[in-house]
Specification:
Elements (H helix, E strand, L loop, with lengths): L1 H23 L9 H12 L4 H17 L5 H16 L8 H26 L5 H38 L1
């Protein structure tokens, strides 16, 4: 129950950041995927597979807001979080550097999955160009800001656990 409430809270905060913050602040013209960062951090910090299913919910919300292909973000978030649950043993050291590296690499994988799904519907799309021009810089930016978000997640978890104790 605690994981459900914290994950849902972080999805709502990430959704707010995606809607409001990305509208006014775009670092180097890139819109940070806050929900993906929060979900990846939650996946690395918790031992629950249910967070991957929160990825479907969060992805469908982002699909509805982007007016794009429904299920694109939901599918890519779900697959990315499933892969993350399997390889989080590689990034076992729960440090800022390892989590930043993990978010960077998993953001690239999520971008590759999204681009692959999108290329099914738009065959003229150049995946390599999209990866180099948008996904790679965005993944690097998300990896750089991950320590700040991780500190916020740790603070939020401690605050929530303190209220229950």
């Amino acid at each position: 129950m605690r994981i459900f409430v914290t994950s849902l809270s972080f999805i709502i905060i990430g959704l707010w950041l995606n809607i409001v913050f990305n509208h006014y602040v775009q670092i180097v013209g890139l819109k940070i995927n806050w929900i993906l960062i929060f979900l990846l951090i939650q996946t690395f910090r918790q031992l629950n597979l249910g967070i991957a299913f929160f990825g479907i919910l969060a992805g469908l919300i982002l699909d509805a807001l982007s007016h794009g292909i429904m299920g694109l973000y939901g599918t890519s978030f779900f697959l990315t979080l499933l892969i993350t649950t399997q390889i989080k043993k590689v990034f076992f050291a729960n440090t800022f550097t390892s989590i930043s590296l993990a978010v960077f690499s998993m953001s690239i994988i999520e971008g590759l999955i999204s681009s692959s799904i999108l290329s099914i519907f738009e065959p003229e799309l150049e995946i390599s160009n999209l990866m180099l021009s948008a996904t790679l810089p965005l993944s690097l930016l998300q990896g750089v800001i991950t320590p700040v978000i991780l500190q916020f997640v740790i603070w939020g978890e401690n605050l929530f656990q303190k209220d229950l104790a």
